[in-house]
Each structure stands twice: as C-alpha cells, then as structure tokens.
Amino acid sequence: MSEGTEESGRGTHWLLYAILAAIVLATLTGGFLPELAAETEILGEMFLNALKMIVVPLVMLSIMVGITNLGDIRSLGPIGGRTVLYYIATTSLAVIVGMVLVNIIAPGEGLSQGERHPSMSYRLGGEELRTVELDGELTKRYDGTYALTLTDQNVTGMISAIEEGGITVADWRLTTPDADYLTTEAGQRLLLIDGMRAQLNLNPAGQGIAVDLPMAASVKDKEGRGIGSAIREVFLGNPRTGKEGMIPENVFKAMAETDILPLIFFALLIGAALSVLGEKGRPAIAVISALNDAVMQLVNWIMYTAPIGIFGLVAARIGEAGGFSGFLPELMAVGKYFFTVLLGLTLHGVVVLPLLLMLFARRNPVPYAGGMSTALLNAFSTASSSATLPISMKGVTEENGVSERSSSFVLPLGATINMDGTALYEAIAAMFIAQVYAISLGLGEQVVIVLTATLAAIGAAGIPEAGLVTMVIVLNAVGLPIEGISLILAVDWLLDRFRTTVNVWGDSIGAGVIDAYEVRDAGKTAQSG
Ligand code: ASP
After folding, report:
1. pLDDT of amino acid 1
2. Relative to the CA of 426, which ligand 1 atom is closest?
3. Would the N or C end of the chain have less CB density within 10 A of its end CB?
4. What DSSP element (H or E) covers 75?
5. Residue 385 C-alpha to ligand 1 middle, in angstroms?
6. Separation of 204 CA from ligand 1 center, angstroms?
7. For residue 216, what is the DSSP state?
8. Closest ligand 1 atom to Cα of 468
9. DSSP 8-state secondary structure symbol assigned to residue 215
10. CA dihedral 447, 492, 365, 3 (to 10 degrees)
C-alpha cells in the first residue's frame, strides 16, 4: 500500500463513523419527530445536488483518461467483453436467487387483490358522505393501498380508514379517467370531467361495492411498455421524454439530462481517437487528466459534508413516510414480501458476490467491503447508483487499489446497467404480484421473468425508484396486472435503498474481478515481451 492510500484510509475513518452516526440519528429523528425531520430535506438536497453536479464531468473525464491509459486501444476488447460477461452473469445469478426465494417463501399467497360484491348494499354518512357502512362483511383486511368503488354510482375513493362505523375514503372521484375535483373559493367542491364542470351528487345509499387496487400514478402512461420498446430505449432513447439512447443525437442534451450511457459511448470514442492521434493528442490528454484529478479533489471536499447531507436525506424521507407510527403499519402489510427481497439481497450481497471476489480476484471480501463502506452507506442514503458513482470510484481505486484503467470503465457502465439488487427485486416483486392475484406461472413464464427482470434492471436508470417503473416491462411480458404495483408502492422507497446498496456493491466487486484479469494479462504480456 502506498503512503497516499494509507493517508486517505485513515483520513476517511472519522467520516465513516460520522456518516453512520448521521444515519442512526436521522432514523431516530425521522421516526419519532417526522414533522421536524421533513424540514431537513434541504440539507439532503444540497448534498445530492453537489454529487450530481460532478457525475457528468466525472464519467466523461475518467473514461477518457482510462481509455488513453490503456496504451493500445485494442485492449478495450478483452476488458469490455469481460465486463459485459460479468454484468450479465451476476445479474442473472441475482434474479435466480430471487426466484428461488419467492417460490419457497411465497410472500403473496393469502394477500388479497380486492373483491367485488355487486349485491351488497351500503349507506353513506359522515363528513362529505365519505364513510361507507356496509350491509355485510368483507373477506379480507384492506389498507390505504386499496380503493373502494360504489359500482352503482361510478365513484371511487382511496381507503383512508377501516373502523367499526365503516370504511372511510379520502375523497370521492368519478371512476372515469380524467375526472377530478375543483374547489371553488366558497369551498364548494365541483367535479371536473374532461374540463367540464359538474356537481357531484351522491345518493346516500345504494347497492354494489368493489374493493380493488388502482393503477399507481408512478406507472401511469407506461402501461404499454414492452420488451421491444425497452431495448429500443436503451439504444436510441425515448423521443417522448427526450431521453438520449446509447448513440446520442446530441451529446450536450445527454449531458444536460445526465444520461450516462450515451456519455460513456461518446467519451470512449473521443478517448480512443485521442490515443490514435499520438503526439498530437498528448496535450489534450494532459489537460483531461488534470481536470479528472481536479474533479476527484472535488469529491473529497463534497464528502466532508456527507454526514450532514446524509442526515437530511434519511431523516426527511422517514419523516415524509409519517415516521415509525405512519410507516410501520404499511411495512407490516407487506412484511413477508419485504422480508423476501431483503433476504435475497442479503444472500446475493453477503454470499454470492463475495464468493465471486474470492474465486476470481483472489481477494478477501471483508477488507474490500471496508474500503467500499462510505460508498455503500451513501448508496443507501441517496438510493441512487449514479449519485454514488464519485464515491465508489474513490473507494475502488484509493481504498481497494483497483487500477484507474479498470475502474474508470467498469464503474460508470456498472452504475447504469449493472443492477443486481434491482434485478432480484423486480423478479420477486413480479412473482409476488402473481401470487396475490392467484395467477400461477409455469416454468416457461418464470424463465420469461428471469430474462425480462434482467432487462428491466439494465434499463433502469441509477436514480431513486427507477426499478419500480421498469417493472412494467416484466409484468407486461407475462401478462400480470400493472395495478399490482400499488401493493408494493408504500415500502418501495426503503427497499430501493437496500437494492441500490447491492447495485453499488456489485459494481465494485466487478471492478475488482475485472482488474484482477487485467493485471494477469499485463503480467503475461510483460513476461512474453
Ligand atoms: N435506485 C436504484 C439505483 O440507483 C435503481 C432502482 O432499483 O430503482 O441503483
């Protein structure tokens, strides 16, 4: 270990403890004082912005430096091939771990997707007739994930409470899409239907109710997403959202949108071109290399603020979820599902990935994890692989001694396409939804889930809860109801943090494994040369 590495190792120790303390403190503040905690959001946002600010220059500069360091750009072939092979193999392994667990534990069995009672009569009462007294019993228990519909009046409302007096809904809306309320200055509530105004006159009694899962707002408009459009989006982008694909139309737009894949592609090409230029390219390479060092210095500075930023991120999110008293009931409702995903992530992160590091890189995973701990905690706190990239770069190279030429290629690509945690979660979530709806899936369909979950994880951006949205691809592929996503929505922000941690861990192990092969290759060339 060089002197510099020892220095930075000691230097970051206090930081690690400070971040751990911040997470504990934030959890307590968010849990017990949710309103106060929600106010700390600004601290987290500032820290997150600072990290995001350097992601684009960091990705581009480090890749250009990495490529120009390769010596011979033909050696990009082996490193590229191995990286992609490692990504595909580990992501598939993660999905398989998830599939095995979800089949054994069967977390969705016994939960309800809702029920219909066309002949059950009801009476409305309470404030704004929002409480529904039923003439019979519902078969299962429901919570705020579900909606109650009065089928004879075509109105529906999200359940806000189920008590002895009846079921109270948060608000009545027309079952028709595009219907919404308008509150006038006088406090009168009018119903808007496609921009037309109409007053909602509910009958205080009627017959016919249904309880079901509504379509989650976060996946609306994405219901039609299939495998074809997902692959297209990876390569060509999405003209509707302006997202650039791997081959960008406009590289500045890709920078402005932090679309990393096109930036990697562009930086690879420029780096390769600079190497080919030889003498003429040298001054530019020197400038790029200095700028890259400067950006890494910025990472150091930003990291000093990490404990405060991470406190804000974690406290505000728990506060927003209503603190422990608001969130724990939601967690209990899908506790088995939550536990299955967590168990899968633990198995993959603690057993499968470390084994790969031992087998293929011949390295001890414990100190390796120690070197990555700041990055892993940051991944947990930000729920974003991309925002964690600057810190994982530092961890991999400075703490774990992986060469920059390997890390600069493996990590940015990994942050975008290698998501073991996300893939594992997508598979479990899809199977969970199938189990809730009592749709039994055969081996063939489960294989389709394995393939599409891998693809959906590749397609997910390294930003919070991106996996939730790309899950539509998996559900569509095997014809599962998209509404099922509503079931897992309330706990997704927390699961997201765990899966992002595994995503970043998978990338960093990838860097270690690929680098070991690079070092071996370099040794061989030196021997034969
Ligand atoms: N938040 C995850 C990440 O950044 C992606 C996801 O699963 O939603 O890696």
Report:
1. 35
2. 7
3. C
4. none
5. 6
6. 46
7. P
8. 8
9. P
10. 140
How large is the C-alpha radius of gyration of the chain? 26
**Most confident stretch, 113-122, 189-198, 520-529:** 113-122
Name the residue at shortest CA distance from atom 3 of ligand 1: 462
Partners of 211 in the β-ladder = 115, 148
CA distance 384 to 50: 13
| CA atoms in the 13 A half-sphere facing the CB of 57 | 16
Question: E strand or H helix at 177, and its extent?
Answer: none
What tokens were used for 477? 């592929």
Question: Which tokens hold the place of 450?
Answer: 């394995």
**117 Cα to the center of ligand 1, angstroms:** 39
Which tens digits make up the pLDDT trace of 88-126?
999 999 999 999 999 999 998 878 778 888 889 999 988
Prediction pTM value: 0.84
Question: Mean per-residue pLDDT for 16-35?
Answer: 93
- Reported in sequence order, the residue ranges of 74-154 that DSSP labels E, i.e. its strands, are 114-125, 131-134, 147-150
Question: Partners of 117 in the beta sheet?
Answer: 209
Q: Report pLDDT digits (tens) over 124-159.
A: 988 878 899 988 888 777 877 888 999 888 888 888
Among protein residues, the one with the nearest Cα to ligand 1's atom 1 is 464
* Ligand 1 centroid from CA 221, angstroms: 20
Which residues have a Cβ under 8 Å from the Cβ of 102 and sit 6 or more positions away?
Answer: 340, 344, 427, 428, 431, 432, 435
Q: How far is the CA of 156 from the centre of ligand 1 (A)?
A: 33
pLDDT band at residue 199, thresholds of 50, 70 and 90? low
Residue 496, pLDDT above cutoff 90: yes
CA 223 to centroid of ligand 1, rounded, Å: 20
**What's the pLDDT score for residue 180?**
66
Nearest CA to ligand 1 atom 6: 467
Half-sphere exposure of 70 (CA within 13 A, CB side): 27
Q: Residues lining ligand 1, judged by CB closer than 6 Å?
A: 383-385, 419, 422, 460, 462-467, 496, 499-500, 503
